[in-house]
Amino acid sequence: MISIVTITGIAGSSSLETELHRIQQLQHQIATETARQTQMAALGNTLAQLQSDITQQKELNQQPTMEQQIATVKDNIRRLTQEQSELERSITQIRSQINQQLQPNLIDKPNMVRILPFGKKTDQIPWFAVCESSESILLYKDATTKIRLDPLKLSYSTEYANFLNTIANTPQGILIFLIRDKGVETFDLAVTIAMNRNIKVGKLPLPWDVPLDMHNFYPQ
After folding, report:
1. Residue 174 in contact with residue 127, Cβ under 8 Å?
2. Residue pair 12/59 in contact by the 8 Å Cβ criterion
3. Is residue 193 part of a domain?
4. Which of 110-114, 207-211, 216-220 has the highest mean pLDDT?
């Protein structure tokens, strides 16, 4: 397929490598937290066993030794509890930073997407169809006149057939599909029908769900 259009006003994005590093760091710290929780559970079992042993060992005058071991275990539990709290705070901060980086930057989102000429084949005459969703496709007859059709009816739609005939009868005519996120299935259906009629086609994904400005690139 041929793509001869481009989009202006695309917002900048954060480094994917940086985000990957942060996510890996988060995964490592979560794994560390899980390991510490396992250690705490094991120490809790040890403490219970030692307390039971004290009762059994009192008659053998081993109580001071067992109590010392219990004190050591309690110290370890307190230390691990403190480390776990610090680790949880660190994980919360990292998650917050990652979420902020992954959220769309609404400030950079344009109010309108403008379709412009691009590439070497500027002698071609473009016609546009916007694949909006599984329930809607827009055919541009000119910069402002649009026809909305049900994609499920395209195969026998007179309006779509007339639209394709107009393109076929236009020297150097080409049909450009502009595809929104929810319109991929509609594109698959519409492009198949167009190619079966030997229509030259191109495609371009639309990154935002905003209005389109077609005035700079459309047959008059």
Report:
1. yes
2. no
3. yes
4. 207-211
